[in-house]
Amino acid sequence: MTQQLEIYDTTLRDGTQAENFNLSVDDKVRISLKLDELGMDFIEGGWPGSNPSAVEFFKDIKNYNLKHAKLTSFGSTRLFSNPAEKDANLQALIDSQTPGITIFGKSWDIHVTDALRIGLDDNLQIIEESLSYLRQHAEFLFYDAEHFFDGFKKNQEYALSTLDRAVTGGADCLVLCDTNGGTLPHEMPHIIRTVQDHLKAGGKTIPLGIHSHNDSETAVANSLIAVSMGVTQVQGTMNGYGERCGNANLTSIVPSLAVKMGHKFKIAENLTKLSEASRFVNELANLPHNKYQPYVGRAAFAHKGGIHVSAVKRNPLTYEHIEPEKIGNVRRILISDQSGKSNVLHKAQKFGLNLDSQDPVVSSIVKELKELENKGFQYEGAEASFELLMRRALGSLDSQKRYFDLKGYRVISLKRSMTEPPQDEATIRLEVAGEEVHTAALGEGPVNALDKALRKALSDFYPRLKEMSLEDYKVRVLSGEHGTGAKIRVLIQSRDAKSEWGTVGVSFDIIEASWQALVDSITYKLMKDEQQRNTPENATK
């Protein structure tokens, strides 16, 4: 009989402890919305007691309506020197006003005596009292048993006693944490079974969770084994990001649980969105996607030459353990122009475009897409640019000349001394609605100056551009071995009162790459405004 599982994401907290993995508050909000769309059950937003940006995130996310996911805040048991009602960490968790609260406590006696420097009984007391105090403030109250597996191996009786006190304190779920990531798969069944038998013997019925780190390259395997033993909450991060060698990778765990083990949970209903969500996180973190990543990597279903290609064309099961479409990925025959059709058709449906699989334009879009990808374009975080590409191919959007035509731009960055910042100015000439417009603007940097000059030139013709703002701007070097002559990719996130959209540009010239992304961003805004005006309800007004 299959179990109803809970998938608990900690990318925004544990994931951000990874080296070079950084997210702004806006990034965290956008990732939360994407994970909610995916069907994540719980999203851990951060540790408000130690991180001001987490406090800001919990404040900002209240402006959005999560349809399925429950937000949780994270913190530790109270300081031994503080009563629970006066502990700043516990109060910060309450102030975050999240439906869920997760706190961790010490399971390994060496951490109690050497890290906390308190008695073993004192640690049991703060576990119980912290949870008991938080119980009335949380709809969902989870206890992370930190270093549980190491603690169990060194002092089984004490590790189990910490769980007993967490149950007494009112925890809804006991999450067993392999914090150092050193536990191997063959050790899991005995430890989990011992915990289950201990709780049952004590008359305690409470769900168990698993939180594995990947220092032994076994976090995914340990998580799957834990579920096979009856654990019902799985914690991890998107793409396995986390401290040191990372956390259990949800993009590998989720499809294994759903497709191979037959378990029921919300994401299992939305698996086709998994690959997109995986790449979305990477784009916002400004990190390259691991093409060799299982399930969601671009190479996960790529076949090249020889007998493999011949066999896959006859029957994909010969060299694929799962259908790539199930998790939103695509089969790629590296010597074929046909790869990527399903992805194009999927996007066309999402954009409301009527596109038949036999339409020759599908092949032309795939061909153009492959050519652009070879140049460095990536559309996972820039769907607006991809929609424009598809509409141009279908003839529903001739080019940006529908709205404006560039006659030329010039950007000057003038630096007069070593101690003063440069002065940046952009001038631009456009043809708009049959008129030539020539404007100039100063900016904080050359791209900002160009953005201001472009908007200045267009705002009289398209007043609604004033409600559009540039929310994020990321630059990635694509070929570092070329040094300052490397090709770069620019990703821009824009928004207006109704929506957000991403656009992309690629060039050896950072200003040109930025220009491409800016033009797509503005064109997309103007196109959506035009579509809105032409809707039947507006056309009759």
Provide tags for this entry.
19% strand, 541 residues, alpha/beta, 3 domains, Double Stranded RNA Binding Domain
Describe this entry's structure for a reader:
The protein has 541 residues and is of the alpha/beta class. The protein folds into 3 domains: 6-284, TIM Barrel (Alpha-Beta Barrel); 354-395 and 470-541, Double Stranded RNA Binding Domain; 404-461, Double Stranded RNA Binding Domain, CATH 3.30.160. The chain is 39% helix and 19% strand. It has 18 helices and 16 strands. It has helices at 25-38, 52-60, 88-95, 109-116, 120-135, 148-154, 156-169, 188-201, 219-228, 250-260, 274-284, 306-314, 341-350, 360-375, 383-394, 446-458, 510-533, 536-539; strands at 6-9, 42-44, 70-76, 100-106, 140-146, 173-178, 208-212, 233-236, 302-303, 332-333, 405-414, 423-432, 435-443, 469-477, 488-495, 500-507. The strands form 4 sheets. The protein has an 8-stranded parallel β-barrel with strand order 1-2-3-4-5-6-7-8, surrounded by 7 helices. A 3-stranded antiparallel beta sheet has the order 11-12-13, covered by helices on one side. Strand 15 (488-495) and strand 16 (500-507) form a beta hairpin. Helix 6 packs across helix 7 and helix 9 packs parallel to helix 10. The protein is globular, with a radius of gyration of 26 Å. The N and C termini lie far apart (58 Å). Mean pLDDT is 91; it is low at 335-339.
